[in-house]
Batch of 2 targets.
Target 1
Amino acid sequence: MAVENQCCCAKTNEAELYPELEKIITEHHGKPEDLIMVLHKAQNLFGYLPRKAQEMVAEGLGVSLNEVYGVITFYAFFSTVPKGRHSIKVCLGTSCYVRGGQRVIEKIKKELSLKVGGTTEDRRYSLDVVRCIGACGLSPAMLVDNDVYGRVKTTKLAEILERYE
Amino acid sequence: MNMVRSHVLISIDAGTIMAGARAVEEALVKEIASQGLAEEIAVLETGSIGITGRGVVVVVYPEGIYYAGVTPNDVPELVEEHLLKGRPLKRLMLAEAPKRYVIKREKTGLLKEQPRVVLRNSGIINPESIDEYIAAQGYEAIAKALTSMTPEEVISEVKSSGLSGRGGASFPTGLKWEFARKAPDPEKYIICNADEGEPGTFKDRLILEGDPHKLIEGMLIAGYAVGAQKGFVYIRGEYTLSTERMEKAITEAKAYGLLGAHILDSDFSFDIFIMKGAGAYVCGEETALIESLEGRRGHPRNKPPYPVTEGLWGKPTIVNNVETLANIPEIIKNGATWFKAYGTEKCPGTKVYTILGHVATPGLIETEMGTTLRDIIYEYGGGIKEGKKFKGALVGGAAGAFLGPDMLDVQMDFVNLKEYAAVLGSGAILVMNEDASIVEMLKSVLHFFKHESCGHCVPCRLGTAQLVEIVDRLAAHEGKKEDLDKLLKISKVMRDTSFCPLGQSLYLPISSALKYFKDEILSHVKQAAS
């Protein structure tokens, strides 16, 4: 499980990953109901969902490209643009909002000259806002990749982010 | 077998892992071994103990002493002082052990302690061991159902227990099962809704992480009762540890013959599959969840037909919340009469709450239905932090209602709160002290709904955008006088005309905020230049 969650886009050339995707699609061939599951796996592979991958998934599962795109854009988890090697997700759920989540975002935006939804030029980080990650007891909370950070202080942000190369 | 004189329980959940629980665990095992205590002291992993935001939590039994904020550096001292010399380490001790029982306020005003129902095993057993669950009377209920009860008898037991849906809608569980049982199609499904997305709620996560086998058992009983062959657990994409523990539990249950063909040598066969959500609040709505399970955008469906007759792939389907299903094994094992000793007449049983915000000890609790907000805040939550005054609470998550001080002594259950135009919802209680700003709270709620509105129907799509515009204006102290009426009017139209509960539910936080805190909101209206 843990391995599956680690994106390997930074290490490998994108073109080399397509045979891997082909294998995943074969397992779910002709099963439109597995679309979301396959997209999860494809995104773990590429770090995002490139157009060519979307086409392959549509073809293999037997759904239209339009439907695949519709599903991708509906769910917050999926992205059609390349993301940074590390994803920063700041929680703005009710509890984090009240306890300063917005200040955390402002600080990151300023430090990394980054917009919400954007990626830094060196593709090291991308920044997104999420709504409640179920860590309300630790507000304000943020996720960097799969690590949860709670009680985030703006003064400690640089130190946390440094850890992610 | 070794005689173990002490058990050291370490809470391994998403929050404590973040705080470094694995490193502390490793240090504990190593230090205990190097002190030569490995034979007599066992270190055990367990799920959440119910304390959040206090770092790594360790409990030493038989004394039942709680340590919080433990780091690997503290371990040598802890082992030497407590485990070797038998002197609890005061420096790290929690002043007050969390209340791991259900309280009952007697007519005399006295408090009585009762055992937990849903969280009976959470924070005690190792969630990654089926043997520990079985040792805690696990899978006894499904054995009882399969060997001595007909499916109809199971349904009638659940019906007479009075259990109602714990996801927020509070629909009678037994009745739902009966509808699905009577649906003529032989192919049926059980779905466990673990797409917990209500802001401020993480009760289902802690059940999934702390006692996954209980959920499997609940689904098995549901499957047997309605005649289903397959079950799905739809887990939030963000809940990595929950997914891992659930996967492990399913594998173990299969190996023990508790899932698969001919369970316990009966004619009943049942399998469970996990589906990971992909981040959409609306998928908590049962028909949207079904759409998502079928691999599509999570748009809610028209109702009727209801899922009990036409659900997943058009087949009769039960969608039950995690907490609802976790009640089932206890009801079957102990009987409906036992269950009804908890809670109120109209709403029996217990409720799991998450208490957050400005309370001294935020966390996860289980108490009986009908417990007042005052008891929840002051008995479980340790009162308002730093001795400040209680201003209000948002009860039931973002789609819940604000409650003011005069609601502190109202009995909270699904039925009674309705009379006060409030809801229990998902069981999230966000407590605010005198310094909290209602407009800021409302702003957060409305922004959340605007973001999560799926865009399917017009009232919700446009309504949320307009509400956000108004509340932003108020938050900037630029509000207009008519804004208050507009908030109410727009949300009322949304309540009456939106397609699904997402758009319908905004009227509640808005109307309740205006009911209790109108003056404060009015103070955000821009004063005419004089």
Note: The first strand of chain A starts at residue 86 and ends at 91.
Target 2
Amino acid sequence: MENIITFAPCVLLLPFLMFLFLGLTNYKWTGKQAGIIGTAGITVVAFCCYYIALQYFFGGVGKPDGATAYQTITVFNMEWMKMSVAHPGLTISIGFLLDPISAMMLIVISTVSLMVHIYSFGYMFEHGHYDEGMQRYYCVLSLFSFAMLGLVLATNIFQMYIFWELVGVSSFLLIGYYYKKPAAISACKKAFIVTRFADMFYLIGILIVSYYTKTFDFVEMNTLAENGHTLVGNSMEGLTFMGLSLTTLAMFLIFLGGAGKSAMFPFHIWLPDAMEGPTPSSALIHAATMVVAGVFLVARLFPVFAIDAPNALEAITYIGAFTALFAAVIAVAQTDIKRVLAFSTISQIAYMMVALGVARFSIEGVEHVETTLGFTASMWHLFTHAMFKAMLFLCCGCIIHCVESNEMAKMGGLKKYMPITWACFGIGCLAIAGIPPFSGFFSKGEILSACLENQCTGIYVIMTLTAGLTAFYMFRLFYHIFYYEENPEYATSEHKPHDQKWPMTLPLIVFAVLTCVCGFFPFGQLITASHEAIEIETNWFVEGVSLTTAALGIGIAYVLYYKKNDKPAKIMAKMQGLCTAASHRFYIDEVWYGITRSFIFGIICKSIAWFDRHCIDGFMDLMGWLTNRASSESKDFQSGHVQQYAWVFVMGVVVIGTLALYL
Amino acid sequence: MNYNQFFVMQPEISLAVALILMLVADLFLGEKSKKYFQPFALAVFAIHTAYCILAGNELTGATETAGAQAFAGMYQTSKIHFFVKNMLNVGTFITFLFAYEWNKKENVNRIGEFYTLMLSTLFGMFLMISSGNFLLFYIGLETASIPMAALVALNKKREESAEAAAKYILTAGVSSAVMLYGISMIYGSCGGSLYFSDVVKNFTSSNYQVMAMVFFMAGVMFKISLVPFHLWTADTYQGAPTPVTAYLSVMSKGAAAFSFMVILWKTFSFSGVEPSTLAWNKILWWVIIVTITVGNIFALRQKNLKRFLAFSSISQAGYVMLGLMSGTAAGMGSMIYYLLVYLFTNLAAFGVICNIENKTGKVGMNDYNDLYKTNPKMAFVMTLAMFSLGGIPPFAGCFSKIFIFASAAQTGEYLLVFLALANTIISLCYYLYVVKAMYINHSENPIPAFKSDKMTLIGLTICTAAFVFMGLISPIYEMILSWSFGI
């Protein structure tokens, strides 16, 4: 325990210091030096994280002798601001909360971040020199690592909100890294505005909850009172707003913030565009860590959701299921390889949401049909998905680095040029399709069995269907890149495609190994909603069905895309309407754009602008004019004559005396 | 007489020792070793500062005015007194750092005078802060004022410097006369004693006594440069050597404001009575509004940065006075916190001005055009200081304003707080003029790039770090608050 206290501040401080150091010494370092500094920093952080997480899970810190459940440990919690006037006792603290999910997130974030730091060395090195913005790049990566670690370790919802926004900012900065590209600029603005818009709901949710509970603290919020309800539920008991229970409403608003970051429908529009950023940062932020912040948020407040706002959880399930299917359908029709992965990310995160949505909290002594399996499954999938999706993105980076294009049409037949990338990409595809023994098989299987176990058959069917689609579009991508028809330019080109140097291949191999083994981790022992170990049984029916569907998906992809043929074109011609709609992402972007354009800009903004220009500006101009006028009229007052000063002094005394006596 | 009583006066005694050491050193150092005088003086003063901080730490259990006293209540001290003195020590030390280069270049023959005069005024301020008797307060005030006039005139060859000193000493004379008259009236009407504890027993708010209080207040308000007793400020600030201006605008204002608060709360108030019904409260209400507004309106037109900061400091003094209105511990805490933040922020601004004036002799706002191209660090520090003075988050200036507004609002002074808030908008405007000059306006011949000396850089770093981070570190405010007391 003492060791953890020593290492804990390092986890938060070091990335922040790195950020300050790289940010404030701008352009002092060459690209290589900046990279080494950043990577060295994150290496230390990663080791601290591993140490803490291992100590927590296996070193007896989380589970002291005799305890059956993992403890929630507040390593430190510094009071930062007291809101003494309106709400006595309400304080905002900055702290370090250790429980199974935050310990797991420590591993995820530090691993992916470290790998991405190393990988970027190779990725940012092009045409014989490092990118000129290297220092800025590593600086923002450090900021991101700091923010993300702070987010998962937050002891209270307000701290989480602060880091939540910091994460948003660093995502904004990384998407807009190539700031000379107009597409990158509009993408980063889009990402920031959409997520910020969703965060507004989150903030409202926080305010409602904290208004009634008089605390921001997660532990206090989640603790079950004697009547079996949480503090949030008890303090808002019986309150309704427009026919909805206020607890449900507030928790749903909080979820909406998470939906923004986790790209749930209809806030998903920013994520595909965010692929304009450098590919390693996409792997870190838009595949593995930041986009699961929404899932993490729901998991963090899971007892509140499950016990006091089951309706909100139900809504989450439906939104998640719809998003999963919807994104998978779109992914089928995309031709930009990073966008396919982006939609697949949306779809997979939706899986995690669904898993949380179907899980319920079982209270001791009360017979419950539902189980908390979904919670474990969701976290498990979060973990495995982070590993294999980061790997897939990094593979994409290698391919893009060679081909210098994101379009599938420019690729094909790359297998013989890039064997390592081929192998890793293949493992990733098998994992995401849910083929044993790769990690995705286990985690996805648990999600599906959780759906079935808790009597959500409809959801189960949708998710199985989505799993089939996932297998199909991933293998479409795989075959299209590595088999299909070789691009004739390769053979003649001076720079033949090839596997990259070690900084880029090492992370791939590390992730590939992790993808192979992390399905066998005993997640049921470590991460559960109640912190007590649960038995995970393999549901053979579910596994059988999902394997069949996946095989079907792969089979169809094999038939259509292994060799160049005209079948895909024919099928597309038959289903033209659907294809066009899917490749245009079902026009959701246009809908948002239309709403923004006509309603927000056209009606609200125009009227506000008018009011602002004529009333507020007018008033301000008047004040300014008056101030200026008063200033120029009164300048003679300050004449520089001492006699006058003395006169004013004495008159001042007289006036004030009169005031004091007669007022 | 019990000579142990002197031990209560640790800061004063330590300061006196430092002062004497410097005097002796100045006298006996030969021509050749003159160059060691400044490092010696800095070292001595640093030791004094450290000693005061340690002594303040050792003071136990005293959070009330009567925490410890000496000479039958003539001299009072407590944790908060120590804190204010330490604050002034640190501020003075930073001023010395800024003055280092100026002393070497322009003030070569009067370095010793500069340090000893500074310490004398500081000694006066310490007495003001700790006084428990009007007489001691008056002596402190004069000890702080008269050497100050000499300091203002230190640059003898410059006509403005001499003129500024003449104006200062003449107006200070008028103010002292009025104040002494007030004190004599208090003596006459409050049972023939000048001890605060005696005066408060006999103070009944009769017309005669209120008039006496007004006379007394006028004298102190002159020191804090509240309107309508502020007219000397601009001329003196502009004419004085810049380090002296920095000192004047922060230290002497801070000391006077704190002792003003203690005297108003401890002698002219009745405990258990709503503060807003007290006579001084009504006076201050108007004085604050007029001060903030007049300070702002005049600051808008200034082209000379020192004069500009003079008016800015007048308006800031108005904000400081908001802390007095509530009469609660929160009021005192927020006022001292405000002073602390203001000290570092204003010193940073003056540090930049002083540095640039040393190197180029320029103090006009137009001279600063395009400064960021040639001296990005100076422009950056100045910008941060202006933001903090204007109260833009996340700098400490924002938090200090919030705390002081909150303390005034707690006792229902909503209109006052609203007017003060509206005034911050005007103040933002002129603070941003400076930023605009440095970053947006173009200039044919901007201030050339130069290398700043180490002392100035150290001083600026301390100040900047302080006002950037202090707002984020809440224990500082909490600590001040825990030592504060109300009426």
Note: Chain A is about 70% helix and 5% strand.
